[in-house]
Amino acid sequence: MASAAVEILGLGLGILGWVGVILACGLPMWQVSAFIDVNIVVAQTIWEGLWMNCVVQSTGQMQCKVYDSILALRPEVQAGRALTVIVALLGLVALMVTVVGAQCTNCIRPGKMKSRIVIAGGTIYILCGVLVLIPLCWFANIVISDFYDPSVPPSQKREMGAALYIGWAATALLLFGGCLICCCSCSQRDESSFPVKYSAPRRPTSNGEYDKKNYV
């Protein structure tokens, strides 16, 4: 019962991480404009994401524009698009695989095969966390390098947006949830490798002899 609860907890964390990756992928706040000048009147804020750029005016009006060309995008944006989409698809696969092999479902008969299926689902969740971590760290490295580079004009300096922090939180959930699923399934498989056999008590028949079926 405890292992099933831990398995459900890991699955829930994996689902939350998967939803977080999808949210981070769609948000345009991977990079936001940095205001570092002393005397500056903030008239607009620039948001840059994987799919569009947005300009937020001081009046609250926001205008967004989807990128026109895919091939003209920067390498980190192209890699971020590809990896986040792959992670979104793999997260769905991990969800289905884990549900099929979970202890709370009867899709597959309990045994070694069911444990292996759950371990495969947890491994996919861990793989998702590693893959989504690549574009997040890539963007963060570029933002920090440009921010402290004196050759970059202040108007072109950016700061890390909310989407990066959401992505890091989703990565932690995916990794932790996948590890919980794998550890729980491994411990369950170790326990099931030494089954305990019980023999039925021998009961005498009416004529005082033991029934032969008790010896089978």
UniProtKB/TrEMBL annotation:
Membrane topology value: Multi-pass membrane protein
GO terms of molecular function: structural molecule activity
GO cellular component, one term: bicellular tight junction
Keywords (A to Z) from UniProt: Cell junction, Cell membrane, Membrane, Tight junction, Transmembrane, Transmembrane helix
Location(s) in or outside the cell: Cell junction, Tight junction; Cell membrane
Main location: other
Segments of this protein annotated with the region Disordered: 194-216
Segments traversing the membrane: 7-30, 82-105, 117-144, 164-184
PANTHER family for the chain: CLAUDIN (PTHR12002)
Function description: Claudins function as major constituents of the tight junction complexes that regulate the permeability of epithelia.
Family: Belongs to the claudin family.
Name of the protein: Claudin
Higher taxonomy: Eukaryota, Metazoa, Chordata, Craniata, Vertebrata
